[in-house]
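Researcher: I'd like a structural prediction for the single chain below. Treat it as a standalone chain; there are no partners to consider.
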Amino acid sequence: MKPHKLSRYIPPKVKFQIRSHCGFGCVICGCSIIQYHHFNPPFSEALKHEAKGITLLCGTCHDRVHKGIINKEEVFSANTKPYCKTKGNGRDFLFTGDISIPVQIGSSKIHSSTILMYDNKVIIGFNRPEKNNGPIRFNAIFTDSNSNIILQIINNEWIVREDCYDLQVIKSILKIIDNKKAVLLEMDLAVKNSIQIKKLLMTYKSFNINADNKNFSVKTPLGGSINHIGSNYSEIGVWMKSDGHALIASNSNGIAAIQL
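Model: Treating it as a single chain, here is the predicted structure.
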C-alpha cells in the first residue's frame, strides 16, 4: 500500500465533535491532557479525518496503544463508553468550572488565570470550559534555551516536538529531556489542588526562566532578575514585555508588585 498524504491537521470542528463524544478526556483513564488517536481506520490507512474514527487518549495510554499493551479492541470499547461519560467527569488537575487553579513553578505558587505572558500573548494560562461542567482548558508553550518550542498544550491537547527531544511520561510525571540529557521540563500531572512544574529551563524572547524545588527565577534581556519564593496572587503572574522589562504580580493595567 502506498503511503497516503493525509495531513496531521484535524479541523477544529472535527476536534470539537471528538472532544464532545469522549467527554473531554482520555476515553480509557479520564485524564484531561489528551492527544487525538485515529483508530478506525488507523492513521496510516486514513484518507480523511472523521470524528467517528478518532478518539482521545492521554500520553500514557496513547503510548501503551502503540506498544500493544492496550489492544485495539480495548480502544473500541473505551470509545463506546468513554471514562468521563461513565464517571461523570475527567480526572487529574483539570477541575470543572473555575479558571483559577494555582500553578506551582519551582518555589513559587502563582494564583492567576494567566501565569506567564509576553506582551499580549499568553504563554501559560487557562481558558474557561467549552461546556458547563467540562474541564477548564490549560494552555502552555514551553521552549528550550534557544527559544525553540519543545511542548505546546493547546486547550488540553499535547503537541510535542519529537525530533530532538525525549518525552517521558511515567505514572503522573512528564519529563522532556534534551540531547545532552538535561531535564528541560518536569511536570506532575496528578496533583489534586495545583499544577506542579517541578523543573523548568526555558528561554522565551531572550527572557530566561528557571525553576526547581528551591528556585523560581526570571531574568530579563536587560539584566534585571528576581528569584521568587512563596505565593503570587494577581491577574498576571509574570508579564514579559518586548521592551525587555518584566512585571511580577501585575494586573491587566500594568500595575505590578515588582517591575524589572
